[in-house]
Structures are given as C-alpha cells and as structure tokens.
Amino acid sequence: MQNIRPISFWHESIARELTQRDSITSDIESDIAIxxxxxxxxxxxxxxxxxDPNLRIVxxxxxxxxxxxxxxxxxxxxxxxxxxxxxxSSQHGRQAAIDMYRESFATVGEIQRVLLQxxxxxxxxxxxxxxxxxxxxxxxxxxxxxxxxESFGFTESDMRMLSLEESQQRINVNGLIASSFTPHCAxxxxxxxxxxxxxxxxxxxxxxxxxxxxxAIHKNELLLDHYRVxxxxxxxxxxxxxxxxxxxxxxxxxxxSYMVATEPLSxxxxxxxxxxxxxxxxxxxxxxIYVQITRDGRVAFGGRGAPYHFASQVKPEYDRNTxxxxxxxxxxxxxxxxxxxxxxxxxxxxPLGVPRNWHPSVIYDPKTSMASLGxxxxxGVASTNLAARTLAHLIAGDNHPLTKLAWVNHPSRRxxxxxxxxxxxxxxxxxxxxxxxxxxxxxxxxxxxxxxxxIFL
Length: 457
Ligand SMILES: Cc1cc2nc3c(=O)[nH]c(=O)nc-3n(C[C@H](O)[C@H](O)[C@H](O)COP(=O)(O)OP(=O)(O)OC[C@H]3O[C@@H](n4cnc5c(N)ncnc54)[C@H](O)[C@@H]3O)c2cc1C
What we know:
Elements: H1 9-13, E1 28-35, H2 39-51, E2 57-60, H3 69-72, E3 76-78, H4 85-92, H5 94-117, E4 129-133, H6 136-151, E5 160-162, H7 164-170, E6 178-182, E7 185-187, H8 190-203, E8 207-209, E9 214-218, E10 221-224, E11 228-236, E12 252-262, H9 267-273, E13 280-283, E14 289-293, E15 299-303, H10 322-335, E16 344-355, E17 361-365, E18 370-374, H11 380-396, H12 420-442, H13 447-456
Parallel strand pairs: 1-2, 1-11, 2-8, 4-13, 11-18
Antiparallel strand pairs: 3-7, 4-6, 5-6, 9-10, 10-11, 12-15, 12-16, 14-15, 17-18
Helix pairs in contact: 2-8, 2-11, 4-5, 5-11, 12-13
The protein binds flavin-adenine dinucleotide.
C-alpha cells in the first residue's frame, strides 16, 4: 500500500488497519485548517469539534496519519515535561510551575478518559515509570529529582524512592543501586492511538487529507503545490518536520531518536525480567534511554544521542542508523541481560522537535488567527493532548484556566544559523555522551562538562 511502509514495529503491527485517505484535489474553504495529522493536529481537531460540533475542520497531512513521531515513538504517555519544575519556576514563578506539572500529570487521566469514551484501544496501561540508577552519580540525580518534587509540594503519590527489593520485584534491572517511581505514565501502542484518534475525529465530521504537503502557511491560507486551503484559523502542528517549511527552518531542530524492539520474550525470560505491570523504565544517565514492554511481551528500547544533520535536514534514510541502533542494543543487553537471548526484530527512528529553550509552547495570535503547538522534545505523547486542549480554548476565546498555563504564547528564540547550529548541537550531544562515560568509569560527577551543558542549554 502506498506510503505505508513498515517504518517501525508499531506500523507493521497495524498495517492491516491503515487505510489510505483522500489527498487534496481542489481549493478548499474551512473554518479551521490544521497542518499535520500527528497527535497535536488530531487532538486539536478533537477538542475543537467537541466544543463546537458545527465547525468545519480539515487536517492536512503530507504523508499518512502515522508517519510522524506520533506513529513511531516509545509509547510513554508521560505527564513529565522536558523542562523541570525548577526551570519552569525560574522563568514563570513557583505557582505557574506547579500548575503546569499538575495539569500535565492529570493529562494522563484525561487521555484514559477519552480512550474509554471513544472506545480507542491503544494498549494503554498506567503502570507508572521507574527511574533507575546504576552508579552513584545517577543515584544522586534520582534522589535530587524526588527532592525537587517534594520541595514544590508534590507528595509520595506523585514520586517516591523505591526500595531495591520493590524495584527489582517490578522490573529486574541489571546493576541497579537505586530507583524512584512515579505513577504518572502509561505505556501505549503509539500508532494505535493515532489510528483511533483519526477515526474518532472523522466520526465527528473532521476531514483528514493525506499525501498533501503544505508548502507555506499564511494568515487564513495554506498553499499546497497546486491548491489553496482558506480558513478562518490555521494551525501548524508539524513538530520534527517544521524545519522543512521555508519560513520556519530555525524554529525547531529535528533531533533523531532511535528505537529497537525484540521478539516477544518467552515465559521463562518473562519470569526472569518480571515486568508484569508494564511500567515504563529509564535511568538517570545523561544520554536518555527509554523502555517499555509491549502488550505482546517485546522489549521496546529507545535512545537519543544521534548526530544532528546539517541544515536541519529530515530524510527517510535517517530513520535508521546502524551505529546508534547497535549502541542501543548494547545498552539494552547491559540493562536487561536476558534480552541477549532474544532477537531484535525491528529498528527504527524519527525526528523530535526541539526548541532553542527546550520549552514546549502553545501559540495563538487572535489578531492573525494563526496558531502552533509543539516543541515537546521527547515528551509529546501526553503533552500533545494538553497543548491541543489549551489551544482549543485559546481559539474559542473562552478564558479557560488552561489558557493561563506557563507555556501559552511562551516564545523560544530561533536556533543559530548554520554552521553554528551544527557545531553547537553536535558538540552538546558529544558532551552528554562523554559525561556518561566519565560518570560510569570514575563514579564522580563530570563538573566541567556539566557546567558547559548548563551554559548552553
Ligand atoms: C523515536 C521516538 C520516540 C519517542 N518516544 C516518546 C515517548 O515514549 N514518549 C513521549 O512522550 N514522546 C516520545 N516521542 C516524542 C513524541 O512522539 C512527539 O513529541 C509527538 O508524537 C509529537 O506529535 P506531533 O503531532 O506534534 O508531531 P508528529 O507526530 O511528528 O506529527 C507531525 C505531522 O505533521 C506532518 N507534516 C509536517 N510538515 C507538514 C507539511 N508541510 N504539510 C503537511 N503535513 C506536514 C508530518 O508528516 C507528521 O505526520 C518520541 C519521538 C520519537 C521520534
């Protein structure tokens, strides 16, 4: 089927459920036109339609609905943001930081509510997240994070240290010396969520067009190769692909994240690794890893740290990277030795959208009726829902409390011009890797490199 190549394990497992939608073949008029049919675009369409069923809404997608990060991610539906409470507090004040995190945590429940209401089965299981440490520097980071949440008035019901026994009973992690637990995360099948959302909004009367790349976004107008879409409100929901739009090249840097999935574990392997509640797992190394166990018992293991491509290029051939995939497989073998016995069946990757200040945002200008949402870095699965709900209220102009959240109309400065961007981003990635190696071998913090990261991030 055109456009539905097996990008990832997720795509392959739903290939039969994917149908191809119309592309745009004439000029169109609409009330709301949304560019991008990932979670951001689809959730925006959903909440707008719930608020006003009469709205004419079109969602316009350059490829197919599961093409973007929403179809390929690690399936962590997490309430955590790429900005910490302290960072939010220093920029927006203490209460704004708390409000942002409270809403973000509640969003996991809101998603669960909609899934039940709309009968979307995306293998959602709210098993929480374990953050592990395998050396003393990571251990102090885990302890500091729990302390940070406490200092902002969050309680053990939001995040707590786990005893080693409890941790190992949940997931058997090699070399673990400490860990924390938060309930604010669910494991999902990401592509099933996209398909379920797309079908839900279509049932509500939204029209989704595929294979229809938008070339330029203007006030009240989108330009495609041969046609125009006119709309009262235009929404850009293009995340990691934003740099491909001429006027938006420096808004978000596309950083690639990569994943592998194993064959399903055997019963004996499953007994060894345990993992009966499908908790998501990561550890406190600098170069992020993220793991879930799928409903059919595969370890789906992801990692960041791939080099940034000059001039923010995004290409299908970047979806696989032998070096990074091999590194991820080594990390998986180290964290879960039992996976050495299990073949890796799938390897894939995709671009995240990273703003210069690492701070996601929801932007709406009532004067131009132009909107955008994104910059979630690697935490967009749940954040897209909160961002879309917020945007729907901004567009409705109903003064809803969500429209007061810290990320509303919070600008990020644009990324540097090339070659500074290339040198800077890849330099920082290299530093993060070197810090991990230093911490692992020396067991002490890498203060100099840490200082450099603090200055530039
Ligand atoms: C490998 C990987 C693992 C990840 N793991 C997690 C995780 O476990 N948890 C988590 O919270 N986040 C994770 N993320 C991030 C998360 O997936 C994203 O933040 C989220 O999916 C963003 O959704 P979106 O709709 O904004 O963007 P996308 O899903 O990328 O959708 C944007 C859509 O816009 C379309 N588009 C772009 N430009 C145009 C144009 N000009 N015209 C028409 N259409 C256009 C694209 O084709 C795409 O379909 C991961 C990302 C990746 C790549």
